[in-house]
Amino acid sequence: xxxxxxxxxxxxxxxxxxxxxxxxxxxxxxxxxxxxxxxxxxxxxxxxxxxxxxxxxxxxxxxxxxxxxxxxxxxxxxxxxxxxxxxxxxxxxxxxxxxxxxxxxxxxxxxxxxxxxxxxxxxxxxxxxxxxxxxxxxxxxxxxxxxxxxxxxxxxxxxxxxxxxxxxxx
Length: 170
Description:
Blueprint: H1 2-9, E1 23-32, E2 39-41, H2 44-56, E3 59-63, H3 67-75, H4 79-86, E4 90-104, E5 107-120, E6 123-136, H5 143-167
Parallel strand pairs: 1-3, 1-4
Antiparallel strand pairs: 1-2, 4-5, 5-6
Helix pairs in contact: 2-5
């Protein structure tokens, strides 16, 4: 028993999967607020974290400037519809939907719903949906602040999704 615990203690976590050559990847972040019908950009902190995860894997990410697409994203709320609008070769679409949950011990709890879709040639290759609970200190902090607070968890999960895609020969 002790020997097996010592063995497990020596195992180091694996690093990110690296690509052999520069591979382009378009990164798009969308914030869908519950109280607002219009789609908006994700905060810069999340965008930077997503780009860093892609660069860590030797991908060549470019951030799609969403303002030109936001009108279409407001009209088209489904992931498949949004991917049609983007129409790029390899696209990482990160859709966030923060919702206020409750006040707890003087802090404001939000739940950020996240749907991450990796599409190549318009076809879904990898997909993940998860919720990230975050606590904000002030009442005036809203959806963008909740998404920014969730950025470390979201970027780590996106990194895992990219690793899965690269391992499968993507």
